[in-house]
User: Fold these one by one.
Assistant:
Number 1:
Amino acid sequence: MPTFSPQHRTAVDASIEVVAGVRSTDLDRTTPCAGWTLADLLAHMTAQHRGFAAAARGHGADADVWRPEPLAEAIAADPVGTYTAAARDVLAAFATPGADEALFALPEFGPDVTVAGETAMGFHFVDYVVHGWDVAASLGRAFTLPDDVIAAVTPLTLAVPDGDFRDADPSPFARALPPADGDGLARLLRHLGRSPDWSPAPR
């Protein structure tokens, strides 16, 4: 089975769909990512797509391709188009034959860090399930994914370790929340430190 699964593509496509509802007046909205506005979140998501696409093509060691700061102006001018272009590009990069067997340079994990393409794509899959939800939650909208996507991403998500390191500023996820009743996505959100009941600050 190819590592870049249809379920992974569906998750990224779902993120494109929810970002399509963003308007320039939404960019100052709060998000489930502490301290980030929706503009910050979209810049991060866009930069990550660009970084993973570069890594799939053998150029991920360039730390500049992962930086969200240069995207601020483009996000402010055209949040939907800027994000969508990056998402489509990473889908194309991941679909390249042999990408799952390549070594991806991931400088955010440290200098000279490389991981197998299969592993890197797993990181990306988890990120875009939760980030799709982050955007939807910021907009006050529901976010659902097909059962097969949840089934495919669940073991990858639950393999993300918990511990003191999640309290550190660079950690992408807060400490896991206690399990509770809920659907499959809610379980994954709690494991990644998100409350499924989070709602944006009043405007």
Note: The chain has seven helices and two strands.
Number 2:
Amino acid sequence: MTELGLFLSKKSASKAEISRKTGISKSRISELTLNPSTQLRAWELYLIALALDVDPGEMFKEMYKDLSLKND
């Protein structure tokens, strides 16, 4: 499962409802939630956040909280 998949699971979000609200196909939503090699586009994250009624920045921070810059 991807970071998006985990986030949606925590929110008990329906993939079908997100697809309906955003216009992103159900198959693309499934791919984004199940396949770690699939790249999530910024506009997709933004639309999904709007569909969930969450702040896109907070959603981004939550999903990628484990990322950090390399130490010099």
Note: Helices lie at 3-10, 15-22, 26-34, 42-52, 56-63.
